[in-house]
Write a structure and sequence with these properties.
By secondary structure, the chain is of the alpha+beta class. Helix content is 50%, strand content 10%. The strands form four sheets. Strands 5-6-7-8-9 form a five-stranded antiparallel β-sheet. A two-stranded antiparallel sheet has the order 1-2. The chain has a two-stranded antiparallel sheet with strand order 3-4. Strand 6 and strand 7 form a beta hairpin. Helix 13 runs antiparallel to helix 15 and helix 15 packs antiparallel against helix 16. The longest helix has 33 residues.
């Protein structure tokens, strides 16, 4: 590979133009691709999230890469994201031996080992549960015996409005189970007959493993009731099927709790080990960590009994301070920085963006966009910035590039997002006539673009 090409590839890598790297390197005939070409192709595929393709390329140069710590690192990176954690740990361990003292490699080795151990625990637990199911279980106990539920629920007006439904009839339960495709556990049915959905007074559950929410616990916003009318019910418009079909959560059971992250993590009944008619485990599923599963409890009753007060884990002030520091000082992604540099209509636009995001954190306590007014303003700002610089953008292209601005923007980023929010915002702006489509390209009307610019100037 000649020096000019290496310098070009390095520039594109710094600018996060990974697809351009792939497109260029694929023009090189396979028989002419040397070690450096294939290694860089593997890196670009990794950075695009195409981990199988990355691994396929890197395996071509397996023999030549045995003494190269970078090759082992890139293999480990692909394996890690394919959730082959034990193999990833082996690759990072070899890379670390070949190049000692590399803190990045040491960090990935540590994370891989932690994930591998967690994965092995999960596999052992599921295997044991399947074996127990084959052997059969003893007599069933009455759910929640020796536990008073009189003081379990929060009786706020919001809880009643958002979650609480009428007590479920046997006919409704059968209908919901048929729609979901799973038999609901007896303890869940017992709790819902006592009160059909709501917000418990204790909303935290301790965990052995860290999640995107906290190092030692998860939090829930409420428990879905049996029904369809309330949005936060099993078959409501924000219920289990919506989270699985629209948000991409694994189709392994039933979503029973939403969480304060507004969709970025949920609590589910997991039927993998017991089958659709068995007694499911309760798990936490983390969208921000590629839908990583964390075991919570052997069954629903154990989960309810294990809930504790948020006062035991109150880090809200620390979390808010960290988020405020991020939006004030975090480095913009290369794409967002590029777009801001091209926006001459607004002076100090970077500070205007930081100002709006600071207001979002002040209101929510964390950095995330949803369907509120300030979030919609930030959707508008990002769209205006991007389509101003790239006017030939289609609906699909914008949805694909959105995450590279702020959602996964590195230091100034949210670490995740729900694609559904962006689609809903786009559809709404189209319905309002504020986004128009011409020859397959989408843009703001001139009038609405002027309104967004003015809002930015006033921020």
């Amino acid at each position: 590979m000649d020096q000019a090409l290496i310098e070009q590839l390095d520039r594109w890598h710094e600018e996060d133009e990974q697809q351009r790297i792939v497109d260029l390197l694929l023009t090189v005939p396979e028989e002419e691709r040397d070690y450096e070409t294939i290694s860089r192709l593997g890196r670009a595929y990794n950075n695009l999230g195409l981990y199988e393709e990355a691994l396929n390329q890197l395996e071509i140069i397996t023999e030549a890469g045995q003494q190269d710590p970078v090759w082992h690192f890139r293999v480990g990176f692909a394996l890690y994201h394919l959730k082959r954690y034990e193999e990833a740990a082996q690759s990072f361990r070899t890379s670390d031996k070949l190049e000692t003292g590399n803190q990045n490699t040491e960090s990935w080795l540590k994370w891989s080992m932690q994930k591998a151990e967690k994965q092995q625990r999960q596999e052992r637990r599921i295997a044991a549960k399947k074996e127990a199911a084959v052997e059969g279980s003893g007599s069933e106990e009455v759910p929640f015996s020796n536990m008073s539920l009189e003081d379990f629920w929060d009786d706020s007006e919001y809880a009643k409005k958002a979650y609480l439904s009428e007590p479920p009839t046997d006919e409704l339960i059968a209908s919901i189970e048929e729609e979901l495709g799973y038999k609901l556990p007896a303890s869940y049915l017992a709790l819902m007959k006592q009160q059909n959905g709501g917000i418990p007074k204790n909303t935290c559950f301790p965990t052995e493993d860290p999640t995107s929410w906290a190092e030692d616990h998860i939090a829930i916003s409420g428990i879905f009731g049996i029904g369809r009318e309330k949005s936060y019910s099993l078959c409501g418009d924000l219920g289990s099927q919506f989270m699985i079909e629209d948000w991409g959560y694994p189709d392994i059971g039933v979503v029973i709790c939403d969480c304060p992250s507004a969709g970025h993590d949920v609590v589910m009944l997991d039927y993998r080990a017991c089958g659709r008619d068995g007694e499911p485990e309760v798990i936490h599923v983390d969208q921000e960590s590629d839908y990583e599963i964390t075991f919570l409890a052997e069954n629903f009753e154990a989960f309810i009994r294990g809930l504790v007060s948020e006062e035991e884990y109150d880090t809200s002030e620390e979390d808010k301070e960290a988020a405020l520091y991020k939006v004030a000082h975090g480095k913009f992604s290369s794409l967002l920085e590029e777009l801001c540099n091209r926006a001459s209509e607004v002076e100090h636009i970077d500070q205007k963006i930081r100002s709006i995001c600071t207001r979002i954190v002040e209101e929510k306590g964390y950095f995330s966009f949803h369907a509120d007014e300030l979030s919609y303003l930030m959707y508008d700002v990002q769209f205006w910035l991007y389509t101003k610089s790239y006017p030939d953008t289609s609906h699909e292209q914008y949805l694909a590039v959105y995450e590279k601005m702020i959602a996964f923007g590195g230091e100034f980023g949210q670490g995740g997002y729900a694609p559904g929010w962006i689609s809903e915002w786009l559809d709404r702006r189209k319905e309002e006539g504020r986004i128009v489509q011409e020859n397959g390209h989408i843009r703001f009307t001139d009038q609405f673009a002027a309104e967004v610019i003015q809002q930015l100037r006033e921020a």
